[in-house]
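Supplementary Methods S3. Complex input for the iron/sulfur cluster-bound model.
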Amino acid sequence: MADTVKNNLEPQLNRRGFIKGCTLAAAALGLSDAMIPKVVEAAATAERPRVIWLHFQECTGCTESLLRASHPDIGRLILDIISLDYHETIMAAAGHQAEQNLHDTVDNHPFILVIEGAIPTKDNGIYCKIAGKTAMDILAEVAPKATAIIAIGTCAAFGGIQSAAPNPTGAVGVQDLVSDTPIINIPGCPPNPISFLGTILHYLTFKRFPALDKLNRPLFAYGRRIHDHCERRAHFDEGRFVEQFGDKFHKLGYCLYKVGCKGPETFSNCPVVRFNDVDAWPVSVGHGCIGCTEPNFWDTMTPFYERLPMIKIPATGIVASADKIGKTILAATAVGVGIHGAVGIGRSLIKGKKQTPEA
Ligand code: FSX
Ligand code: SF4
Ligand code: F3S
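Predicted complex, serialized as structure tokens:
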């Protein structure tokens, strides 16, 4: 059996890249510089956890962004610190040999299960089959034997685009079908690779998974709203908005709220960790956040280019349309601003189904 999936990606990281990747992940985890040697040591010396990676209903963007990112240190580091025993996209094995690899690990070793993609449940799950079995059956067979499940991407976490109305295949996220195995959700469509890497490195360094929110998302990556650490926030607070894409306010870098930014309702670290080696994120390049880390965002965050309808100022009871946002109304309070969409995204944050290991 292959200890690690043979693949045709780039060669292993050199020492400099290894340390750089660990340092980036440690920063994303919110660890102090003093902890970096401990993270590096854990990554270098720990027994590599076996990982089974299953693909169901998805676009494979999660894998592509993770392993072929324009930040090669991150993708290579992930492959260096885990033993990837089964991964349909990059493994060289095929057919019966691939199935044998899967069953050898599942039946004989502890392993972390990574799920990418939603699971269709309608008509007994016939809309996604691999090796003659439905995704539902494969999940039911493999999930109970896993140490923990990492649901990578919004599809695996919450159903994603497959579950958007009218959800023709009855697609759901992993946590709707699995109840007895700890689940860590790493949503995003696709998610930032650093959030996955940080989760694995936390597990290697501290022997436990990071603390989670009520939606089973690691708090280090999903603990704060986009809006609360956005570089355009000063424009929002001063009532300076882009009115339409391409206008003079867009060129001046004003707030994108009126052209649909869902940052006020979205929990993610995008403005801080940014993406790839170009150090950009959607809002920094002039596009609003579409809320891709939140459950049901294809339904609840659309239309993507229309603003959230109402703004509430906590402690004052003031609720106003975006047109009235500005110095005058914000001067009424020093406690901050909450945005409330018509669809109750905020409410969904208190409806988590289960808790998994805490830090
Ligand atoms: Fe889903 Fe992953 Fe969106 Fe795609 O494969 S989270 S469709 S970008 O990337 O599962
Ligand atoms: Fe940033 Fe969007 Fe909030 Fe404006 S509405 S400050 S662009 S997150
Ligand atoms: Fe997604 Fe919004 Fe970040 S769209 S990538 S959560 S900025």
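The pocket of FSX (ligand 1) is lined by residues 58-62, 116-117, 153-155, 160-161, 189-190 (CB under 6 Å). Residues 332-359 have pLDDT under 50 and may be disordered.
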